[in-house]
Amino acid sequence: MANRNQTLGEFIIENQTEFKYSSGELSRLINSIRLAAKVVHHEVSKAGLVDILGAAGDTNIQGEDQQKLDVYANDIFIKTLINREIVCGIASEEEDDFITVKGRNEKNDNKYVVLMDPLDGSSNIDVNVSVGTIFSIYRRVSPEGTPATIEDFLQPGHKQVAAGYIVYGTSTMIVYSTGHGVNGFTLNPAIGTYYLSHPNMQLPEDGNIYSVNEGNYVHFPQGVKNYIKYCQQEEGNRPYTSRYIGSLVSDFHRNLIKGGIYLYPSTSKDPKGKLRLLYECNPIAYLAEQAGGLASDGYGRILDIKPTELHQRVPFYCGSKNMVLKAEEFMQKK
Ligand code: P6P
Fold first, then answer.
1. Residues 262-290: pLDDT tens digits?
2. Are 185 and 8 in contact (CB under 8 A)?
3. What is the pLDDT of residues 25-75, one digit of tens each?
4. DSSP string across 169-194
5. Ligand 1 center to residue 12 CA distance, Å?
6. Which of 317, 31, 79 is nearest to 176 (CA)?
7. Which residue CA neighbors atom 13 of ligand 1 most closely?
8. Cα–Cα distance between 114 and 34 in angstroms, integer?
């Protein structure tokens, strides 16, 4: 039985041997993410009070205005990861190219690469709606002692050794997996400690929530239009409830707990969809599968896609197993 008073630190130590590379490096990596999340939580929770809102003036490779908190979160996670001397490379939505990282001994013998969306859903910041950080961790495939290469980052999602997110919502939570199920930890900001609040999270096989930006309806493939109409029909536990926060982490987190499906289809405007494969879809897909759910591009498993570029986009259907299967059925009919 999970000990709900267990702290994240105690949980990491207790479960360290489960991890096949249990040299303690992955634990130190998760610990660095834990620390960075606390620092970002502190800024996000007071965003309305200090002049940190509003676009930083720059735009990132996605052509999106960079909110100052985007830039801040990116800097905090990069600095914290580098200081822990575990990663040989970092890729971020906010960085055009990946960053190679040398250890203090000026060698490249660190074994992991991290890919991240440092502040997902950042357009919600100015309206006080929850946002999140998403991270994905791989063992490097390039030779130790040499600088990280693009191949270290272009691995299929099923090669991830860990993945997770931080949701800065009504409370701040870390939800992550190292391949042995999904666990959620809630931050007690008064003492800066995370507690095991959601042990062994399971995605209900069925749900009655669908999450999609219906403003794009006219641009969706016909299969998606047909699936949305199916969700709205009176039959069985339908019509489903429509919930769309505009923050993948928040929509996924709700569906993980209650059951549901999140859809970001391709559209005539964005034929590849909008979401990025490497640091949004793969980590969320890893968690979905670890929790008993599915993640698809409408035709196949997200985690089997062989990436070809750092910021590539894919259509994304993720959540309760039977809901994703039904959405795929409508997509494949058309
Ligand atoms: P739209 C945020 O920019 C994001 O990547 C996801 O977090 C979110 O679900 C989606 O895009 C929102 O996109 O086009 O519906 O505003």
1. 999 999 889 999 999 999 999 999 999 99
2. yes
3. 888 899 999 999 999 999 888 776 655 555 566 666 666 666 688 899 999
4. SSSEEEEEESSS--EEEEEETTTTEE
5. 32
6. 31
7. 246
8. 14
